[in-house]
Amino acid sequence: MTTLPPGQRLRALMDKPGACVMLPGAFNALCAKAIKDAGFDGAYISGAATSVSAGVPDVGLLTLEHFCRLIREAADASGLPLIADADTGFGESEMVRRTVVEYSRAGAAGLHIEDQVFPKRCGHLDGKKLIPLDHAAEKVAAAAKAAKEMGEGFIICARTDARGVEGLDAVVKRAQSYLDAGADMIFPEGLQSEEEFRFVADRLRSAAAAKKPYLLANMTEFGKTPIIPAQRFAAMGYSCVIFPVSMLRIAMGAVTKALATLKRDGSVYNVLDQMQTREQLYQTIGYTPGVEWACRWK
Asked: Is 0.85 topped by the overall pTM?
């Protein structure tokens, strides 16, 4: 299956009966490789994690080229199929089409675009605003057309933030419009309970015609969604679940504590047991000193 394009590989994983593919967020290539080594079948490139790693808030400030560089590095390092955040598509339909092409060239399996106005907000914050439904569907259609023309199974996921603005019925209405426009997958953002996830899944699956849509769940922390295990998402019919900022939060929590210890003690002696050793780090990147490193790049 590794010889298939990334989009086809991820589709095959999600098509397995009862599957809900776990996609931890990779905030850099090394993290993507660690995700692979931990036994995961895919990973996620988060707009929030990418933005804060660059020292800016998640409001759509970074460029298409910035995202593509990270996608390419993570895909090359891990070999995993990646779903990548494309925020609001970096512009109107023309830019949405270009984003699909550039993300695919960078090695992504698919992307999601959202229906917020620009500048967007984190999906778990209040005060969001939506673009008109026909405008959002037009952008989804542009993305779907570009993906179809490439013919490699690239996944178009439409995210809707309607839950926090117009309610659950609007989530279903917008999602159905995006499916009609050509989306392969729906990402209902900011849902607040298992019951809401089940409601959306049941409504969309029952309304689907020939082929049931893929569904993506967001398992972020400290937001509006309670902690729900992947097994529960699978039982509700979700195809994959992302953990967008989890690894970054864990890493930065450790960094902050280590810096406080270094400042206090003047050395890292008391945090050595919390570090990867040199050997473990080399193992992650597949490097043996003195031995020619085998390039994994495509």
From this structure: yes
